[in-house]
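Subject: design request, 254 residues
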């Protein structure tokens, strides 16, 4: 399929490629960005200049960075989501109860997006941040959501994004993933055993609407030395499942 068919307004697609690449590179100059994108410097420069003038990028001595104006758009989008409004107080309670990271994730365009995260008093530092996008199969949160989607929807996501490895533990085989999703449906929660971050484990449960379709997922993540068998297989799953249930009820009756 040609880019013209994929992107009716090619200039807009180019603009967002530039923004996303600047994000991935944590800032870049014209030459570096043009090389990365395999685009003419003049084209890249025109886009960068326009984005800077409309205040979505900042130019620091020739190095361009994504600007804080994106916070206004992202913050507004998040604040309008009912799941964020209802789920955030419960995520905070979960973090306080477990002492670890508590997370709220949604699926959008086949990827997982961290809608909220709260760091408990004993939590270690992680790379996750609000708005971060991840491949669904690399996290317990994502697998929890996938487990409640129709198989055709799961296949569509895999066909679009693949099953890339993040660590040696990441599931990268379609059949293996589907076997895991069947197990998750049976027990009610998903696990991530160093599948996105080495040394970290995670337990997640889907949050579903009245029709049983997933609208998000909640999780608790912590280091493997604290998430031993009893904690990982009993204590944390109970807390996560309870929180997911409370959020589902509140979503229905709020």
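Subject: RE: design request

Done. Sequence follows.
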């Amino acid at each position: 399929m040609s880019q013209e068919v994929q992107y009716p307004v090619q200039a807009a697609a180019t603009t967002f490629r530039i923004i996303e690449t600047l994000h991935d590179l944590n800032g870049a100059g014209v030459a570096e960005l043009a090389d990365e994108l395999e685009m003419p410097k003049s084209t890249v420069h025109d886009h960068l200049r326009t984005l800077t003038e409309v205040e979505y990028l900042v130019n620091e001595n020739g190095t361009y960075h994504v600007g804080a104006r994106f916070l206004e758009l992202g913050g507004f989008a998040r604040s309008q989501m009912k799941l964020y409004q209802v789920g955030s107080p419960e995520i905070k309670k979960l973090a306080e109860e477990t002492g670890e990271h508590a997370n709220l994730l949604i699926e959008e365009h086949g990827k997982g997006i961290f809608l909220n995260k709260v760091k408990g008093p004993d939590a270690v530092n992680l790379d996750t941040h609000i708005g971060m996008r991840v491949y669904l199969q690399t996290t317990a949160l994502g697998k929890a959501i996938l487990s409640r989607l129709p198989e055709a929807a799961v296949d569509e996501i895999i066909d679009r994004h693949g099953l890339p490895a993040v660590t040696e533990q990441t599931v990268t085989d379609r059949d293996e993933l589907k076997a895991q999703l069947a197990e998750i449906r049976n027990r009610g929660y998903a696990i991530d055993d160093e599948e996105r971050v080495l040394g970290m484990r995670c337990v997640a449960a889907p949050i579903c609407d009245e029709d049983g379709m997933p609208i998000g997922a909640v999780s608790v993540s912590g280091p493997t030395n604290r998430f031993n068998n009893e904690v990982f297989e009993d204590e944390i799953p109970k807390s996560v499942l309870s929180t997911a249930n409370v959020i589902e009820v509140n979503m229905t009756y709020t």
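The beta strands are 57-60, 63-66, 101-108, 111-119, 133-135, 190-193, 200-208, 214-223.
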